[in-house]
Recover the amino acids of this structure.
């Protein structure tokens, strides 16, 4: 029997990360990035605090943000790329406040999410809201079976987002990445499709 996802092609040949839609939540637009986002991106991506626990270093100029956008935007039209990055835009102001992405992780039908927003927007539930929409897309549109996320053990805010979207802590991978001059442990969280479905039935997820 041929399994089918939401696209026309069988799952075996369809790239689940290709042509993903923009998303909308109560307070956010989660949409494709554009070159016009360079100023807003530089505003948060230049922050040492935002970059503290991520793999990238702070942008030093608007040109760094522009170069990043020039690299990312063509990926939307590449059928072979297994990742998708959205801009997180506050509907109330129309400003880009950060990004969220989903990319293929090693398992079968498994994806990983990552996110970052500017410090002045922390603690308002924005990333939880965006990540909830991306998890829903992963299970309901991309036919994923597992969605995971990883964070530095010191990044309590990120771990909390993972818990709030229904993920469970699986364990800590010791010194998994060499970043900014040292080996760093990563905590792994995940949610499976059947757990997502069970949460939806109870009305707590999705
Ligand atoms: C981590 C981050 C994504 C959280 O985004 P956010 O929009 O502030 O998160 P939310 O408002 O949805 O908060 C989710 C939960 O985390 C908690 N939280 C958020 N920031 C926190 C912090 N710095 N310390 C402790 N808890 C924090 C919130 O209180 C909330 O929990 P609660 O509902 O139990 O109170 C954001 O701080 C960020 O962009 N950091 C820099 C980039 C980064 O580290 N990305 C993750 C890499 S793995």
């Amino acid at each position: 029997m041929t399994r089918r996802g939401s696209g026309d092609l069988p799952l075996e040949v369809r790239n689940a990360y290709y042509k993903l839609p923009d998303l909308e939540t109560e307070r956010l637009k989660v949409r494709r990035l554009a070159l016009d986002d360079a100023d807003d991106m530089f505003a948060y991506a230049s922050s040492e605090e935002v970059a503290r626990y991520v793999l990238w270093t702070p942008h030093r100029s608007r040109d760094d943000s522009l170069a990043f956008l020039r690299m990312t935007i063509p990926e939307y039209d590449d059928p072979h790329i297994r990742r998708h990055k959205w801009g997180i835009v506050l509907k109330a102001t129309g400003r880009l406040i950060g990004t969220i992405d989903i990319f293929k992780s090693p398992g079968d039908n498994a994806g990983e999410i990552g996110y970052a927003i500017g410090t002045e927007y922390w603690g308002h539930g924005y990333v939880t809201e965006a990540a909830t929409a991306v998890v829903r897309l992963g299970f309901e549109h991309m036919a994923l079976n597992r969605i995971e996320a990883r964070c530095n053990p010191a990044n309590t805010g990120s771990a909390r987002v993972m818990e709030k979207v229904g993920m469970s802590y699986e364990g800590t991978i010791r010194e998994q990445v060499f970043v900014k001059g040292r080996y760093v442990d990563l905590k792994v969280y995940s949610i499976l499709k059947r757990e997502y479905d069970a949460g939806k039935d109870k009305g707590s997820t999705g």
Remarks:
- Residues 50, 53-54, 98, 115-117, 122-128, 151, 155-158, 160-161, 164 surround coenzyme A (CB under 6 Å).
- Confidence is low (pLDDT under 50) at residues 1-6.
- The chain is about 30% helix and 30% strand.
